[in-house]
UniProtKB/TrEMBL annotation:
Signal peptide per UniProt: none
Residues reported to bind pyruvate: 208
One Pfam family this sequence matches: DHDPS
Keyword Lyase: yes
Homology family: Belongs to the DapA family.
Highest taxon of source: Bacteria
Name assigned to this protein: 4-hydroxy-tetrahydrodipicolinate synthase
Gene Ontology MF annotations: 4-hydroxy-tetrahydrodipicolinate synthase activity
InterPro entries: Aldolase_TIM, DapA-like
SMART domains in the cross-refs: DHDPS (SM01130)
Length: 303
């Protein structure tokens, strides 16, 4: 039985922990998942950019899905990220995720090939029609060079299982544009950590977070305060959080956030090549940001 996805609250884009031998560290993955549940997240997303999707095999993605479903225990929906190069492979991955119990999908536009609007709509349509799972489209032209525009959404709105958009364009006024065009047809989730509070204030339904992998409690409390309209309290946490959140908008966001999760006890620094762990001055700089934040960690008051 699938868990309903309501597209509200905090959804961590989960890290994929590895061992020193480059195998999945499923026990550490579970430890992080439990911390997320205890903090109050509303969903899991596995195999995204932070999850090192491009280096994972399909059996590994299934193993991560199975462990997340175990921890979610019928309470927390688990979404599988689909980020493939071909439409055929994207359909196969979507159907495999559904067959193995996924509750929903996050769907990126075609990877590597710079598809135009017609091709991108056809890609999304083909995947959506191949599965009954609810889908969140990932709008990130900053990194992936393909924008999901209002005219494209007009076509895609005919597909009932395309339900949400992860808005990572870094232009948060897109939240207003989509609301003006479609009302509540699509749920909107902010996807840029350094614009999280602004996105929620503008009406985003949720937050797909990165630093939540290391700081789940702070992330959830910040979101809850913002939704409750306690903006001054939210801003105080946001100000403390910002140097950490900036670690998410960097080419080495995976290494940065894995280091942060290591220091908070729910992750490790192991990454999969071609990525390599941070070293030298670069590691010292990131470590200094994390240690400074830990030394001034706020006392949290739930919203």
């Amino acid at each position: 039985m699938n868990v309903a996805v309501n597209w509200q609250g905090v959804y961590p884009a989960l890290l994929t922990p590895f061992t020193a031998d480059d195998e999945l560290d499923l026990d550490l993955f579970e430890k992080n998942l439990i911390a997320q549940v205890q903090a109050g997240v509303k969903g899991f997303i596995i195999g995204g950019s932070l999850g090192e999707a491009s280096t994972l095999t399909r059996p590994e993605k299934v193993a991560l899905l199975e462990r997340a479903l175990k921890v979610g225990d019928g309470r927390i929906p688990t979404l599988v990220n689909i980020a493939e190069q071909s439409t055929r492979e994207a359909i196969a991955c979507a159907q495999e995720a559904e067959a193995n119990g996924a509750d929903g999908l996050m769907l990126l536009p075609p990877m590597r090939y710079y598809a135009d609007a017609r091709e991108t709509v056809a890609f999304f349509t083909a995947v959506a029609q191949s599965t009954s799972l609810p889908i969140m489209l990932y709008n990130n032209p900053f990194d992936y060079k393909i924008a999901i525009t209002i005219p494209m959404l007009e076509e895609l709105s005919a597909l009932p299982n395309i339900q949400a958009i992860k808005e990572s364009s870094r232009d948060i006024t897109n939240i207003i544009r989509v609301r003006n065009a479609f009302g509540d047809r699509f749920k909107l989730l902010g996807g840029v950590d350094t614009l999280a509070l602004e996105s929620i204030v503008l009406g985003a339904d949720g937050w797909v977070g990165g630093l939540v992998d290391a700081f789940p409690e702070e992330t959830v409390v910040l979101y809850d305060l913002a939704v409750a309209g306690k903006i001054e309290e939210a801003r105080a946490i946001y100000s403390w959080f910002m140097p950490l959140l900036e670690l998410d908008i960097h080419p080495k966001l995976v290494q940065n956030i894995k280091l942060a999760a290591t220091l908070t006890g729910i992750g490790s620094e192991y990454v999969r090549a071609p990525r390599l762990p941070l070293i030298g001055d670069e590691r010292a700089r990131v470590l200094g940001i994390i240690e400074s934040a830990l030394a001034t960690r706020p006392v949290l008051t739930p919203a």
